[in-house]
Fold:
Amino acid sequence: MAHFDKIAFVASETKEAQEALQELTKRYGNAAVTETDAIVALGGDGLMLQTMHRHLTGKTPIYGMNRGSVGFLLNDYHENNLKERLEAAESTVIHPLRMTAHDRHGATHEALAINEVSLFRQIYQAAKLRIAVDGKVRMDELICDGVLVSTPAGSTAYNLSAHGPILPINAPLLAMTPISPFRPRRWRGALLPNDANVIIEVLEPEKRPVSAVADHTEFRDVVRVEVMEESGIDIFMMFDPGHTLAERILSEQFGY
Structure:
């Protein structure tokens, strides 16, 4: 069993999170992130995503406690017995997506996404996109507000709001989901193997400009976007027994 003698706390700027930070620091100390056995994030899902992005390559497990408005990626907040909770927690390993975006000005941009990579129309004109998977064009023309590629971890976030499927956390799949498709109107997206290479080309980019977003990182006026899972990066998330991310994703499908 792993021991958690050194804990690093990070917190959002909300009053509740800052009060929790002060109380937990008094009880358990606050180790440097470079020396810690676990990072405890106090806030909402947004802070949890930011924390995972900041520590992508450290392989330090991250345990979130909800001090925000949305807590799908977080555990319940309790001040007592934190070290025992960490020792009993179950780990989930997730992998981010790598987005490579080429813009109209010849620049190339890269970013990682834990939840999803999304393409959006920038103006009133609908986007017009061509989609290829593993070198084969699967859709010659999609007219829409946008399209996204989601990880299993992100499938209950924006992907679900766009009527995409919920993916079990350990499923070797990615979800591709259109955002307000106009043509073909009935297309609801696709399930892709997690090792798929997805290339989305922007048609008529000057008339119909498009931006590409990897979680919180946006690049505008893109003409071509490549998306692949970054299997070489492991992110370790910790959950209380019986409340793992796999359980939450399963429960979400039977919720009201």
User: Anything to note?
Assistant: Residues 2 and 52 are 20 Å apart (CA to CA). The chain has a mean pLDDT of 93. The chain has five helices and 17 strands. The helical segments are 15-28, 45-54, 82-88, 158-161, 245-252.
